[in-house]
Design a protein that fits this description.
This protein has a domain at 7-80 and 143-175 and 196-292. Helix 3 packs parallel to helix 9, helix 7 (131-137) packs parallel to helix 10 (182-194) and helix 10 crosses helix 13 (233-259). It is 50% helix and 11% strand. The protein is built from 14 helices and six strands. The chain is an alpha/beta fold and 294 residues long. It has a six-stranded mixed beta sheet, with helices on both faces.
Length: 294
């Protein structure tokens, strides 16, 4: 199981003007690379990533690559290894007396089996998975495959003998989803399965917005989802709070371990940079100021 394959279930096909207006008034609405400064400390760089294995985002753009080349340390959200993979798989399993088919019904279960077939998961295996695990592992067969940029950064850091660290541990990542209310897990999964084609199209639009550095547009797509599917709004709100807002607070605090040393390169999900609740704004009370590079 790989949390980095999380499907943006909170994105819809239409972009509503009110959602766009809201997003465009937010700070840090455009940009993927930011220089972070504090008096008497060498500047560091914060780079917003997108957690997909698409070949279009597996390499750093030139300004980010130059910043990384000068860095004295690397910090990423999470560094997977063999133990964490096994631990995620263990946490992803339902109790012995439950099955996924019981939770989401036979029709959606068949859709889940089909969608997870490219991942090599058997019907029996899928039936043992928690809804959040299936949601994280949904695949878009049309998506070009590549190595996530986070993994490439860690590989390059190891080759340079560059110190690197992670912001979150495996148990924290599991907690984010394992304590997710079951009704929201089920609702988000069933919705994603029912609207697979629509969400695939929106995933492409989201990726293009990311490549353009338009975080406001990405956010407006999420807001549009709540307007288009009002029955999903409570579940989307829970996901946004747990997956983005709550974790951004922790990230802003832990990033400072490297920012205080200076010359750090920090890579984390781009939506954690956006708005007044993003890490760039959360760093300001501690004296840090961010300026856009890319």
């Amino acid at each position: 199981m790989n949390r980095r394959r999380f499907v943006a279930a909170g994105v819809a096909l239409a972009t509503f003007p009110l959602a766009q207006a809201y997003a465009q008034t937010q700070r840090f609405g455009h940009g993927r690379l930011w220089r972070v400064r504090k008096p008497r400390v060498a500047p560091s760089y914060v780079y917003g990533t997108i957690h997909v294995g698409d070949a279009r985002v597996s390499e750093l753009p030139a300004p980010a690559d130059a910043a990384f080349a000068r860095a004295h340390s690397l910090m990423v959200e999470f560094v997977p290894d063999r133990y964490t993979s096994e631990r995620f798989l263990e946490a992803a399993l339902l109790p012995p007396d439950q099955t996924l088919e019981q939770l989401i019904g036979p029709d959606d279960f068949e859709r889940a089996v089909e969608r997870l077939r490219p991942a090599g998961l058997s019907r029996e295996r899928v039936n043992k998975l928690k809804p959040w695990s299936v949601l994280l592992n949904l695949r878009d067969p049309a998506q070009p495959e590549g190595e996530p940029v986070d993994a490439r950064l860690v590989e390059r850091a190891q080759a340079r003998h560059l110190p690197f660290s992670q912001i979150e541990g495996v148990e924290e990542q599991i907690f984010t989803f394992d304590e997710f209310p079951m009704d929201s897990q089920i609702a988000l999964l069933k919705h994603s399965l029912a609207h697979a084609d629509e969400l695939s199209a929106l995933a492409e639009r989201t990726l293009r917005a990311y490549l353009a550095g338009d975080l406001s547009l990405i956010w407006s797509l999420r807001q549009a989802f709540a307007a288009r599917y009002p029955e999903m709004a409570p579940h989307q709100a829970v996901m946004t709070k747990r997956v983005i807002y709550d974790r951004s607070v922790v990230m802003a605090f832990r990033m400072q371990r490297e920012l205080r040393r200076g010359n750090a390169f920090v890579a984390l999900g781009a939506l954690h940079l956006f708005g007044e609740k993003g890490v760039l704004a959360l760093l300001e009370p501690d004296g840090y100021r961010a300026s856009r590079v890319l």
